[in-house]
Automatic annotation (TrEMBL), chain A:
It is found in: Cell membrane. The lineage of its organism: Bacteria, Pseudomonadati, Pseudomonadota, Alphaproteobacteria, Hyphomicrobiales. Keywords: Cell membrane, Membrane, Transmembrane, Transmembrane helix, Transport. The chain crosses the membrane at residues 54-77, 89-117, 137-159, 187-206, 212-231, 243-263. This is ABC transporter permease. It is a multi-pass membrane protein.
TrEMBL record, chain B:
This is ABC transporter permease. PROSITE patterns: ABC_TM1. One of its GO terms (cellular component) is plasma membrane. Residues 68-272 form the ABC transmembrane type-1 domain. It is a multi-pass membrane protein. It comes from the Bacteria. Pfam families: BPD_transp_1.
Length: 270, 288
């Protein structure tokens, strides 16, 4: 049994380890290790397209995760106050946001936005004072919106689970001691749910940063890091892609580790 | 006074859920209505969409039968392969592993799931490509092995990508299992094997069902793994959708396929929940 378990862990990590190893290859080859070098990292970071894609990905991931954390937390707080019927509707929509495949989310958002833009752009042009009306189009906004949909549902689920485990008694104790609802929220509820909000934010960031398929549809002319990596892979395998892949791995690894540490803190209350 | 408090409470509640509700409506409900409308429309001559009410797109679905077959066979098969490997791992983590290392071992399973699937699939493209494993096999005399761009490569990628997601729910259900039941079974003279089959396995079935449902549902919409490891020869519904929307620009037909994909996902979810409720005897099913 132990041998089997070890084999599974090897299976999970060996391919990643090889990608990382060959990112430090001195030669051009992706199969023969000819010496240690960090030249491919230098090459990758000199690549202006790559750096632009990385910037786009960071902006999109930060924005969508921040919006998801705020709106998701608000929804989680509001949902326990809703009537059961309304709560079930919201629960269903949130579950749908998580379950519907990314490829469908991408397509549906693309189709809907293109229609809305083709309706709004002429309207804008006709009512715009002066010469240059703004052209609405795909880009940052559409990716943030589509990523935020899944992320918000994710944050809501995580924070809701945390609130459910809180117990009403501390909130009641607080109001018995004449704290206003706002004070109770600030001093009692918020500190308790903050780790789960942060964990939700980090998972949302990781999701957005790693997502390829949704962005592929709604990015318009913008390039995110996964879109760039995907395009490079189709051109052929080089140690430069390994270097980029390693950077992506390290970034998401840090996020997920911090998120897991934050989420673990929920145990002591019981 | 009470009425005023109630109204105020209602306003606060509404303000809290309003942004989420608006977001869900604008970027989930509305887009879904849009693809429903598109799916009964016609393709405009220059590509894109022309208003109509026809089921021609749905009638045309058999022309993409291969994508449906690949998806509907490889997704459940891949999911079961994941289960076969995942169960012993989950069992070991929950029952056998020493508590000292359990946390780190569990983390090591979770972490790959949250790191880029693109990069992890690339790793296999790299390993299975002509300079990888086939090259090594060539050195020991086994020539001309092609792994990349076969259904086997896609299944390998699936198992690699989704194993963590299968291990976690099974681990959670095994961890919750009351150890006293196992002791009771042993005290009553059951052998370990029969304890496993009559106590442990049935009680972990909700986790197994959750894992199967999650992995199957995600696989139904998979694009990257068949794209990179199937190389256009083993394609899924997701690959057909990308082709129809971004290359051949037949949006109405693509919308019809997207609608059927959602229907399949919902069906799988309903069946899984049905079975899970029957097994658990309750409506409490953990999804994460």
């Amino acid at each position: 049994m132990r041998a089997f378990i070890s084999a599974v862990y090897l299976f999970l990590y060996a391919p990643i380890a090889l990608v990382v190893l060959f990112s430090f290859n001195a030669g051009r080859s992706a199969s023969e290790f000819t010496g240690f070098s960090t030249m491919w990292y230098g090459k990758a970071l000199d690549n202006t397209f790559l750096v632009a894609a990385l910037q786009n990905s960071l902006i999109i991931a930060l924005t969508s995760a921040a919006l998801a954390a705020i709106f998701g937390t608000m929804a989680a707080l509001g949902m326990e106050r809703l009537r059961p019927g309304a709560r079930a509707v919201l629960d269903g929509l949130l579950a749908a946001a998580i379950v519907v495949p990314g490829v469908v989310i991408g397509i549906a958002t693309l189709v809907a936005l293109v229609e809305v833009f083709s309706f709004l752009n002429p309207v804008l042009a006709s009512i715009w004072p002066g010469g240059n009306p703004p052209q609405l189009g795909l880009g940052y906004g559409s990716i943030v919106a589509a990523h935020g949909l899944f992320s918000m549902a994710l944050v809501t689920m995580i924070v809701k689970a945390r609130i459910a485990s809180l117990g009403r008694d501390i909130v009641e104790a607080s109001s018995d001691l004449y704290a206003t609802p706002l004070t109770t929220f600030r001093l009692v509820v918020l500190p308790q749910i903050l780790p789960s909000i942060l964990a939700g934010f980090l998972l949302a960031f990781t999701f957005s940063f790693d997502d390829f398929i949704i962005a592929f549809f709604v990015a318009g002319s913008k390039t995110t890091l996964p879109i760039y990596v995907f395009a490079s892979i189709r051109r052929g395998v080089t140690p430069e892609i390994n270097a980029i892949a390693t950077l992506v791995l390290v970034a998401s690894l840090m996020m997920i580790l911090i998120a897991r540490i934050l989420m673990r803190e929920k145990k002591p209350t019981n | 006074m009470a009425l005023a408090t109630n109204t105020k409470r209602g306003i606060v509640t509404a303000a809290l859920v309003a942004p989420a509700l608006a977001w869900l409506f604008i970027f989930l409900v509305l887009p879904f209505i849009a693809i429903l409308v598109f799916s009964v429309g016609e393709r405009a001559p220059e590509g894109g969409y022309q208003a109509a009410f026809t089921f021609a797109q749905f009638a045309n679905l058999p022309s993409r039968a291969a994508a449906y077959w690949n998806t509907l066979i490889l997704a459940p098969v891949g999911s079961f392969l994941c289960l076969i490997i995942a169960y012993p791992v989950a069992y070991y983590l929950a029952v056998k592993a020493s508590p000292r290392y359990r946390l780190i071992l569990v983390s090591l399973v979770v972490v790959p799931f949250w790191t880029s699937l693109l990069v992890r699939t690339y790793a296999w493209m790299y390993l299975l490509g002509s300079r990888g494993i086939p090259n090594l096999l060539g050195m020991i005399g086994i020539e001309d092995v092609r792994i990349l761009n076969t259904p086997g490569a896609v299944l390998l990628g699936i198992v690699y990508g989704y194993l963590p997601l299968m291990i976690m729910p099974i681990y959670v259900s095994l961890e919750k299992l009351d150890r006293r039941l196992l002791e009771a079974s042993a005290d009553l003279g059951a052998k370990p094997v029969s304890t496993f089959f009559s106590v442990t396995l049935p009680l972990s079935l909700p986790g197994v069902m959750t894992g199967l449902a999650l992995v199957t549902i995600l696989l139904l919409g998979e694009y990257l793994i068949p794209q990179l490891l199937g190389g256009g020869k083993v394609f899924f519904i997701g690959n057909a959708l990308v082709d129809l929307f971004l290359q051949s620009r037949n949006w109405p037909f693509g919308s019809a396929i997207a609608v059927t994909l959602v229907v399949v996902v919902v069906l799988v979810l309903l069946i899984a929940m049905r079975i899970a409720w029957r097994i658990a005897g309750t409506k409490q099913v953990d999804l994460v």
